Amino acid sequence: xxxxxxxxxxxxxxxxxxxxxxxxxxxxxxxxxxxxxxxxxxxxxxxxxxxxxxxxxxxxxxxxxxxxxxxxxxxxxxxxxxxxxxxxxxxxxxxxxxxxxxxxxxxxxxxxxxxxxxxxxxxxxxxxxxxxxxxxxxxxxxxxxxxxxxxxxxxxxxxxxxxxxxxxxxxxxxxxxxxxxxxxxxxxxxxxxxxxxxxxxxxxxxxxxxxxxxxxxxxxxxxxxxxxxxxxxxxxxxxxxxxxxxxxxxxxxxxxxxxxxxxxxxxxxxxxxxxxxxxxxxxxxxxxxxxxxxxxxxxxxxxxxxxxxxxxxxxxxxxxxxxxxxxxxxxxxxxxxxxxxxxxxxxxxxxxxxxxxxxxxxxxxxxxxxxxxxxxxxxxxxxxxxxxxxxxxxxxxxxxxxxxxxxxxxxxxxxxxxxxxxxxxxxxxxxxxxxxxxxxxxxxxxxxxxxxxxxxxxxxxxxxxxxxxxxxxxxxxxxxxxxxxxxxxxxxxxxxxxxxxxxxxxxxxxxxxxxxxxxxxxxxxxxxxxxxxxxxxxxxxxxxxxxxxxxxxxxxxxxxxxxxxxxxxxxxxxxxxxxxxxxxxxxxxxxxxxxxxxxxxxxxxxxxxxxxxxxxxxxxxxxxxxxxxxxxxxxxxxxxxxxxxxxxxxxxxxxxxxxxxxxxxxxxxxxxxxxxxxxxxxxxxxxxxxxxxxxxxxxxxxxxxxxxxxxxxxxxxxx
Length: 719
Description:
The protein is α/β, with parallel strands linked by helices.
C-alpha cells in the first residue's frame, strides 16, 4: 500500500455556514404573472355525510418526553401556556434509545439521589452485565452503556417527575420498558410501582425500542449473535406475561420498529398476537437529500401503505383480534437528520400533512419526536431550548389540528393538478372544517369549493400557518419570528372560489368559528429587512431572504407594499426580480466570482442594503492517518483484529487486519474493515464547505475473490 491510503480535503471559506436552500436548478422566471392565482379545473369537493375515519385526535398529537430534559425547560413550556394550546393526548417516556439503557429504579444501587454530577453507586450490587435492584423502595434511575457499565449522565429529571409531569398535563402515559438490557422482572416492577403502589394509571406499555438496529443497546446479544424477529418475539412474550400478571388491564405492544419496514412486526403478530394490544413503529421518511418542497411533502404519504400492510398482517394472522390490536407511530418527524428541514416552515407544512395522513390511515395514536431536541443547525424539538423555548413550525402545525380540526374525517377530494393537499373533519358538535396545504413556495392557488355538491358561499373564518407567522432564519439558525397562526375572515367568490396563499396550511371553518389563532395586526408602514450571510463562497449558489415588518408593532407585515429588489457586484438574480407578496420571501442568487456584492431591498420610501463578501474556496489537505512506521492505531477501529505488521514492507510498519477466516457479512457487525473517527478537532467547522475523500490501493494489491467489494461511507452530522 502507498503511504497515504486515505486523504480528506476540506474546502475552507470564512463563513458560518453555506446556504443553498433551494433547488439546484433554481425557480423558473417569475414576474407579476406568477403571482396571479390560477384556477383549477375541478373543485375541492367536501361530502360531510361520508365519514371515513373517527379517532380521538389528541392521541394522534402526542409527544416524546426525555429524562434528559431539565426541570426549568419543562416549567418554561408549561408556564407559557403552550402545552395547553397543543393538548397532547399521549406522552411517551423515558425517551428513545434511553429506554434500552435505563434502570428505571436505582434503589439499592444508588447511594445518593443526585441525578447528574455527583451521583454515587454501590459497585457491590453489580451482577455481571446487570445490577441488583431492591424493588421494595424507589430511588431515581440510572443510565448504563455497553456491558452494563455506568454512564456518566443519568438525566436531569427522574422517573417520578416524568410521570407527574405527564399526569399534570392531563395526558395519558406510554412507557417504553428496557427490553434491550433489562428483564421481565424489571418491567413488571415498573408496572407495579406506577399502577399499584402509585396512581399514575399507565395503560400503554411498549416493549423495547428499535431493537432491530445495531445502534441500540441490546441489539447484540450477550452470547453472540444479534437481535432477530424470533429472539425479539420470545423476549416480548416473557415481558408481556410478567407485566400483565401485575396488571391485566394494561395494553402491551411493540416492536417500536425504527422505520416503516417494521421488520419484527409480522412475526410478533404471528407468534405473539395473543399478547399484543398494539403494533408500534417509527418513521422519519424523508431523505436528507430531498430539498424541493414537493419532494419533501411527498414523504408524508408513505404511512398510508405502511398502516394498510400492518392491518393486512393482523387480519391474516390474528383475525380474532383484528378489531382489538391498535397501531401506533411512537416516533415521527420529517427526517432523521436534524437540520433546517426539521425547523423551518416546510417542516411545519409536512407535519400538518402527516397528521392528516395518519388520521386517514386509521392510526390510533402517535408521538412526535420530541419536545426540546436542538443542535446547531436546527432540531426535531417542538421548542428551541437555545432560544427561550420559542416554538418551531411543527408546534404550530400540531396546534392547527388540536385547536381547529376535529377527529371525524369526512370525504374530501382535491384536484391533483393543484398541488394542494386537503383534509375535511367534523368535531364533536358537527362543525365542519377543511385544512388545505399549499406546498408551492411562490404561487398562490385559486380553487373552487363545493360542500355537499353546492358551491361554498359567503364568508368564513380561517386560520393560516405561513411565513406571516413563522420564519426560520438560516443564518442565525433560530426563528426570525414565531407567532400563533393568523386568524382572518375570508370570502368565497362566485362559484365558491377561494385563494390559498403560497407555502401555507390554512384551516377554513365551513361551519362554526375559529377556536384560536391571532388576529392579523392592522397594516401600517412596512419596514424592509434582508437575511443574508456576511460572506459566501464565490462558486456556490446563495439563497437570501427579504422580509417586511410592521413599523409600529415590529410584527410580520400583513398589508400590501410596493417593493423592489436589486443586486450589484459579482452576483446575479436567478430568474426575474421577485414580486414580494407577504411578510417574507426567499430569493435565489448566483455568484459570478469573488468580490463584494450588494443587495438592495426597498419597501415604499424605505430601503435596506446588505453587503456580502464573495470569496474563493480554498482546499486544505488533512491526512487522517498515514500507513507508516509509528502510526497510532488508536485512531482506527475495525470489526476484525487490527495490528501493525512489519513483514509486508521493508523497514516499514503497515496496518494489518486479520479476518480470522471470517467473511464479511452485510447483515452482521463484522464488515467494518476500517473506521475513522471524526475529522480532527483543529479544523474550524464553521469554515468547512465540503469534504472530499481520496482512497488509493497499492499497485500490488491482490485478492483471491474477484467479486470482493469495498464500500466507503462518509458520514456527516452537518448540512
